[in-house]
Structures are given as structure tokens and as C-alpha cells.
């Protein structure tokens, strides 16, 4: 078993693995984005955005199960990558590894007048989640338009009210700086209040030539 702890959601945090019925951590010797990629894929969390070391999500507890993990990036599980052996090396917890995954594997604008405008949705595993109006800002819209090759961000509109409660709602706020190439690279913050009155409609200037 594998999980990410102490992050903003299930797709970021300290890497923890369960072995012999006990949860433990992964030590950061040679921890790279390829290793993180395997973790994100295994957890159905999209792609890896950052591979972190030195306990960025706090120190864990229990054994350090894995050390010097070396993945190619296409393994189906983290423990299928080469490593020194289960619990072979005891490593202080301030070397615990962390991972930030994109959490979503795609984004799109739907229901707009053009391909470059509409309600913002992100793909979470196999389903599309709606993003709240209050969870994005203009800088974030700029990153989205750029990623979709839709020119510049023109406006963010308060979309339709959430009448349909069956819609899956994305729980994180995006805090882009504005120069990111992908929405997945923007800092995010888990939004605990479940209230989300309107969805976000993003309007971009149009396809870039």
C-alpha cells in the first residue's frame, strides 16, 4: 500500500508505504522526478510536478522502508523500482521524501461559444470535476489559456449557479504566479469550506497562430 500524508489533498504529501502491516517512509537518497512519477501514477494522481526531499511535509514515523529508490518512471508500483531492500537502511526522518502530483490529468473549457471559452473542468482519474469561480484568479486563467494554446486570458466570469448537486467539484484553489506553462505546476491550496456557489467560466482571446 502507498499513500501521501500531510499534503493539501490525496495527491501531495510525504511518501508512505505499508510493509508487514506497518506504515513507514521513504528516505531521500537519489529521489528524483522519475520516482515521483511512479508514485503519482500508482495513486491515480496524474503526473509528477515535484519530487521533494528533506521532509517538506514534516517528519514521518515508523521505519524508513525504502532507500535509494531508482525508478525508470514506467513501473507499476514504487517497490518494483530498484532499491536497497525493505528496511535495509535506517535513515533519520528528516530525510523523508515528498511528492506533489498534478492531481488531474487534463483540463478543458466546455459549453462556451468557442473552443477557447467555457466552464473550466479538470480531469480527476476518469471523471471531470468542475472548478469553482472562487478557486481561480486572472493569473490562473492566463496559465490555462496559454496551456490550451488559446492566446491571452480575457476574462473570468461567474458561471452558472450550482443547481446540479451531482456534479463533482474540484476541492483545491489554484494560486498561479502566471508564468507557469501548465496549470498542474501552479501552487494549490485545499479549500475546506465546501461552499461553491458558481462555476468558473474562462474566456481566452482565441487560438494563437
TrEMBL record:
GO terms for cellular component: membrane. It comes from the Eukaryota. The keyword Transmembrane does not apply. Pfam families: SRCR. SMART domains: SR (SM00202). Gene3D superfamilies: SRCR-like domain (3.10.250.10). Residues 2-102, 107-205 form the SRCR domain. Disulfide bonds join 27-91, 40-101, 71-81, 132-196, 176-186. InterPro entries: SRCR, SRCR-like_dom_sf. PANTHER family: SCAVENGER RECEPTOR DOMAIN-CONTAINING. This is WC11 protein.
Amino acid at each position: 500500500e502507498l499513500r501521501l500524508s500531510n499534503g493539501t489533498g490525496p495527491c501531495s504529501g510525504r511518501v508512505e508505504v505499508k510493509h508487514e502491516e506497518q506504515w513507514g517512509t521513504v528516505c531521500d537518497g537519489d529521489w528524483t522526478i522519475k520516482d515521483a512519477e511512479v508514485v503519482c501514477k500508482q495513486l491515480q494522481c496524474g503526473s509528477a510536478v515535484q519530487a521533494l526531499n528533506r521532509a517538506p511535509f514534516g517528519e514521518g514515523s515508523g521505519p524508513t522502508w525504502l532507500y535509494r529508490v531508482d525508478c525508470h518512471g514506467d513501473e507499476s508500483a514504487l517497490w518494483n523500482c530498484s532499491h536497497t531492500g525493505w528496511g535495509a537502511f535506517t535513515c533519520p526522518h528528516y530525510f523523508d521524501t515528498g511528492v506533489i502530483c498534478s492531481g488531474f490529468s487534463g483540463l478543458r473549457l466546455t459549453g462556451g461559444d468557442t473552443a477557447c471559452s467555457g466552464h473550466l473542468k479538470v480531469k480527476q482519474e476518469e471523471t471531470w470535476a468542475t472548478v469553482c469561480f472562487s478557486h481561480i484568479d486572472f493569473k490562473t486563467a492566463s496559465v490555462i489559456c496559454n496551456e490550451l494554446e488559446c492566446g491571452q486570458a480575457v476574462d473570468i466570469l461567474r458561471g452558472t449557479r450550482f443547481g446540479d448537486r451531482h456534479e463533482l467539484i474540484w476541492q483545491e484553489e489554484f494560486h498561479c504566479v502566471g508564468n507557469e506553462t501548465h496549470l498542474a505546476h501552479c501552487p494549490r491550496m485545499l479549500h475546506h469550506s465546501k461552499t461553491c456557489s458558481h462555476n468558473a467560466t474562462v474566456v481566452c482571446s482565441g487560438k494563437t497562430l
